[in-house]
TrEMBL record:
Keywords: NAD, Oxidoreductase
Domain of life: Bacteria
InterPro entries the record matches: ADH_Fe/GldA, ADH_Fe_C, ADH_Fe_CS, Alcohol_dehydrogenase_Fe
Pfam families xref list: ADH_Fe_C (PF25137), Fe-ADH (PF00465)
Alphabetized GO MF terms: alcohol dehydrogenase (NAD+) activity; metal ion binding
Full protein name: Alcohol dehydrogenase
Family label: Belongs to the iron-containing alcohol dehydrogenase family.
Residue ranges constituting the Fe-containing alcohol dehydrogenase-like C-terminal domain according to the UniProt record: 189-382
Keyword Oxidoreductase (UniProt): yes
PANTHER family: ALCOHOL DEHYDROGENASE (PTHR11496), ALCOHOL DEHYDROGENASE 4 (PTHR11496:SF102)
Tagged with keyword Oxidoreductase: yes
Domain Alcohol dehydrogenase iron-type/glycerol dehydrogenase GldA: 9-177
Length: 382
């Protein structure tokens, strides 16, 4: 067994109705003025106002920024940082999926140390602690509340850049399953499969450790056995709890073990064609799993048993059984079958492949990959 280390420096509150603990957390951190980062979608269904009311009921001032979009850009980060500084806020509440949390982390960095977010691109360039962030996920998917990365689209390069540093981890996370129980089926599906892929890639990663394996396996169990049920009925409280806990554990797993080719390849798809992150991952999933089968050391069967329907016995496992089961899961959840269905054009594949190779996740993939391999994987998924 190779050496490994881990730490979980966050306070995490989980439970139906746990939002009520937000004011106590803010007061514990002497947060007299909060900067709430979210989006207009959550505003339209009343979630933003719910959080605002909870904050302001305790006489805590709240400035709100709602211009976050999927695949948030450098310009959005710059705008949000300017408003944060002008507001006089001293802490950030990030409400939503991965996009508001990525923006919150980036704002926290720039508010603390200045410069441009591109100055911090790469690993461990944030010099110290940032503005305290309280993360409140409204999807069971990204795990961003426990991950040490912020992914921001640099439109000048058509490139999704990553800032990776344990300094940008949110200080607190509140996981209230009630917040995901009104999600549309399509969002529940794409976010849920994204969380499953986080656990799956962390489990197959070359950087996997007994600690990340423990988190990944429990995440796959919770998500694999509940994702269909949750997409079918988001008001199923038991399924919602399983999905939210599973997403969180998957985030902890991949924050320590990294991911693989699926995520490395999905980021350019989102950057070039604005495809939602979870959808891009899900479409690439069967192709990359089939490619990685050559390196399987028994873990494919473990994954298969977490996601397959029913408990019927089978004689002998072959990796193609997992590929077929994944394709069936995608079909059940309404995931597009190919990259062409989400607008990807073949002529962009060489450029996307070059960008994918810039991701450190390529190095964690269980099967080594070069530029030609990535090009062929894109073409097969097309």
């Amino acid at each position: 067994m190779k050496d490994f280390n881990f730490k979980i420096p966050q306070d995490i509150e989980f439970g139906v109705g746990s939002l009520k603990k937000l004011p106590d957390i803010l007061k514990e951190n002497n947060a007299g003025h909060v900067f709430l980062i979210s989006d207009h979608g959550l505003e339209s269904i009343g979630v933003v106002k719910k959080i605002q009311d909870i904050i302001e009921a305790k006489e805590i001032k709240c400035t709100t920024y709602l211009e976050v979009k999927p695949n948030p850009t450098v310009d959005i980060v710059n705008e949000a940082t300017k408003i944060y500084k002008e507001s006089g806020a001293t802490s950030i509440v990030a409400l939503g999926g991965g996009s508001p949390m990525d923006v919150a982390k980036a704002v926290g960095v720039l508010a603390s140390y200045g410069g441009k977010i591109t100055d911090y691109e790469g690993n461990h360039k944030v010099p110290g602690a940032i503005v305290p962030i309280i993360a409140i996920p409204t999807t069971a998917g990204t795990g961003s509340e426990v991950t040490a990365s912020a992914v921001i689209t640099d439109e000048s390069r058509n490139y999704k850049m990553t800032v990776f540093s344990y300094e940008i981890l949110p200080k607190y996370a509140i996981l209230d399953p009630e917040l995901i129980m009104t999600a549309p089926a399509s969002i529940a599906a794409s976010c849920g499969i994204d969380a499953l892929i986080h656990a799956l890639e962390a489990y197959l990663s070359r950087n996997a450790s007994p600690f990340s394996d423990a988190m990944a396996e429990k995440a796959m169990e919770l998500i694999g056995r509940n994702i269909r049920r949750f997409v079918a009925n988001r008001e199923d409280e038991e399924a919602a709890c399983a999905m939210m806990a599973g997403s969180n554990f998957a985030g902890i797993a991949f924050a320590r073990a990294r991911l693989g080719n699926i995520h490395a390849m999905s980021h350019p798809v989102s950057a070039y064609f604005n495809v939602p992150h979870g959808v891009a991952n899900a479409v690439l999933l069967p192709t990359v799993i089939e490619y990685n089968a050559l390196s399987d050391n028994g873990r494919y069967e473990v994954i298969y048993n977490y996601i397959r329907e029913g408990n019927e016995a089978y004689n002998g496992f072959k990796p193609d059984m997992l590929v077929k089961e994944i394709k069936k899961l995608n079909a059940d959840l309404g995931i597009p079958k190919s990259l062409s269905e989400v607008g990807v054009k073949e002529e962009t594949i060489p450029d996307m492949a070059k960008d994918a190779l810039k991701s450190a996740n390529i190095l964690a993939n269980p099967r080594k990959s070069n530029l030609n391999d990535i090009i062929e994987l894109y073409r097969k998924a097309l």
